[in-house]
Write a structure and sequence with these properties.
The complex is a heterodimer of chains A (112) and B (111). By secondary structure, chain A is mainly beta. Chain A has strands at 4-7, 10-13, 19-25, 31-37, 43-49, 56-57, 65-67, 73-78, 87-94, 102-103, 107-111. The termini of chain A are far apart. By secondary structure, chain B is mainly β. The chains are: A mainly beta (112), B mainly beta (111).
Chain lengths: 112, 111
């Protein structure tokens, strides 16, 4: 049981480049989330999804887009990367409020 | 807007000592979570507190929740070096089970 898998684990982008981060879960969870983690700021919600085909904005959605075409996958896109998007990105999924989230291992993104 | 505040932000303590990390939140919620994060790693779930007065214990860590005071505590008993990590509290907000995280408390246990 792999849980939540994020790819890639590391990436360096040049300003203006685009990329997609992939999150895959094999637990049949309905809810999926993308967070970014920056030093001293905890984790901040970028976008989330409450089920296949649905997405919604979180606390810091600007500069990101998401899609959830299949229940098990949640994609995070950066259309034109900026240095301010240098961060560690975590994907998480949830089915039962009583157990909280299952987190992926994270993607460390550097935009130069 | 829900705000979650943790204090202290950094804690250096000697092995064998006791200490408490505090988590305050600004709006009503009856679910609170504690996570641990080791450097360069993902977040590991420690405790899920689902009601007022809930208390959970695992080894040297004990978490409690007071929903009326909007306060949760994470108490460390007789700290050991292996507990060195960053600890986050998080509160459920609104629909879709969105978690709002505190800024984290970096715990360093010295030998």
């Amino acid at each position: 049981n792999a849980g939540v898998t994020q790819t890639p684990k590391f990436r360096v982008l040049k300003t203006g480049q685009s990329m997609t981060l992939l999150c895959a879960q094999d637990m049949n969870h309905e809810y999926m989330y993308w967070y970014r983690q920056d030093p001293g700021m905890g984790l901040r919600l970028i976008h989330y999804s409450v089920g296949e085909g649905t997405t919604a904005k979180g606390e810091v959605p600007d500069g990101y887009n998401v899609s959830r075409l299949k229940k098990q996958n949640f994609l995070l896109g950066l259309e034109s990367a900026a240095p301010s998007q240098t961060s560690v990105y975590f994907c998480a999924s949830s089915q039962d409020l009583g157990y909280g989230y299952t987190f992926g291992s994270g993607t460390r993104l550097t935009v130069v | 807007e829900l705000k979650v505040e943790q204090n202290p932000l950094f804690l250096s303590m000697q092995e064998g000592k006791n200490y408490t990390i505090y988590c305050n939140y600004s709006t009503t919620s009856d679910r609170l979570y504690w996570y641990r994060q080791d450097p360069g790693k993902s977040l590991e779930s420690l405790f899920v507190l689902l009601s007022n007065g809930a208390v959970k214990q695992e080894g040297r860590l004990m978490a409690s929740l007071d929903t009326k005071a909007r306060l949760s505590t994470l108490h460390i008993t007789a700290a050991v070096h292996d507990l060195s990590a960053t600890y986050f509290c998080a509160v459920i907000t609104g629909t879709a089970s969105k978690l709002t995280f505190g800024t984290g408390t970096r715990l360093q246990v010295t030998l």
